[in-house]
Write a structure and sequence with these properties.
The chain is α/β, with parallel strands linked by helices. It has 9 helices and 8 strands. About 40% of the residues are buried.
């Protein structure tokens, strides 16, 4: 069967990464976690400042010092920043609260979009994010856009935080989710919008398996 590019866009905590990993494993495709790339840049920026406040000018000047790569280990899909495994650190609440602010910086987006496009040259990839089907790969053969109620997504994010030992109230997580939605949807450069040819899926009342089956069925029809 032919190799294609699958783009999964949507709001935070709609299950994009989990679905992309499952689909990549089933189809023997390469999974590219663009969200982790933006998180890694955010974590790098936070580490450069003593008070943990991001210096945008310094970050832009240092973008060429940032090297991100992924590895599959016994711990699953791992993200490395300049040779260090930061898979856990990039999921911390401080990164959660700053990543959308970093992601709206035009220079950061240009830097990462260029890397993402290079990864898709040979196709056979599944990439999730906010602008994959609109900016990174507008020519992608399969495009999906996931959405869910903020309250549902906040609960999912809170559970994820608990799993990595980060206790955070549901109210705090919900506020962060809503702020991210606003920033992602209103930024001037590559805002979070559904591509005209993307399949929109409301996942609030659906299990991961149900959404997976829906996506998988459409992809198989496309590549067969």
């Amino acid at each position: 069967m032919k190799k294609i590019i699958v783009a999964i866009d949507g709001f935070a905590s709609t299950g994009k990464s989990s679905l992309a990993k499952l689909l990549a494993e089933t189809l023997d495709y390469t999974y590219i976690d663009t969200g982790a790339m933006y998180r890694a840049v955010t974590y790098y920026a936070l580490q450069q400042e003593p008070q943990g406040n991001i210096n945008q000018e310094r970050l832009i000047l240092n973008l060429d010092q940032i090297k991100i790569h992924f590895e599959y280990t016994h711990l699953d899909h791992q993200t490395f920043l300049n040779g260090v495994n930061v898979s856990k650190e990039i999921r911390l609440s401080q990164v959660n609260s700053e990543v959308s602010k970093v992601a709206k910086i035009s220079e950061v987006r240009a830097f990462l979009v260029s890397q993402q496009q290079k990864l898709g040259v040979d196709k056979g990839i599944i990439m999730d994010g906010r602008d994959i089907g609109t900016v990174v790969f507008p020519e992608a053969e399969c495009k999906f856009f996931l959405k869910a109620l903020p309250e549902i997504r906040a609960k999912r994010r809170q559970l994820e935080q608990i799993e990595i030992g980060n206790e955070e109230s549901l109210a705090s997580v919900l506020a962060s989710i809503k702020e991210r939605d606003l920033i992602d949807s209103t930024r001037i450069d590559s805002p979070l919008v559904k591509a005209d040819d993307a399949i929109e899926i409301e996942v609030s009342e659906k299990s991961l398996e149900e959404v997976y089956q829906q996506l998988h069925e459409h992809i198989i029809k496309t590549i067969s």
